[in-house]
Write a structure and sequence with these properties.
The protein has about 90 residues and is α+β, with helices and mostly antiparallel strands. It has one domain. The protein has three helices and four strands. The protein has a four-stranded antiparallel beta sheet, covered by helices on one side. The radius of gyration is 13 Å and the shape is globular.
């Protein structure tokens, strides 16, 4: 589980993609330009492969505001998806 109080990656995400994993679920947070608006995109997919080698149909995406509040919502979504889809993350374990 990602702890929102210790997850301070917003400034990093504004410049680079941030990736991580937890118990079979890989994730990426990245800045996304939608027209003139900047968004925070969260992408999740099952292990074992990295983002580039994972088929697109195995990735799930959600967008949030590119702000601290948006990052906190993204963390809630990541943690929620990890819990809701436990069977998917444990397939290769």
């Amino acid at each position: 589980m990602i702890d929102k109080d210790k997850f301070h990656v917003l400034n990093y995400v504004k410049k680079e993609e941030y990736t991580g994993s937890m118990e079979g679920m890989r994730y990426m947070l990245k800045k996304k330009e939608t027209g003139e608006t900047l968004k925070l995109e969260a992408v999740i997919w099952p292990e074992p492969f990295g983002y580039a080698k994972t088929p697109e149909n195995k990735k799930q995406r959600m967008e949030f505001d590119l702000s601290q509040a948006g990052l906190e919502e993204a963390v809630d979504w990541l943690n929620g998806q990890h819990e809701q889809q436990k069977a998917l993350w444990s397939v290769i374990r």
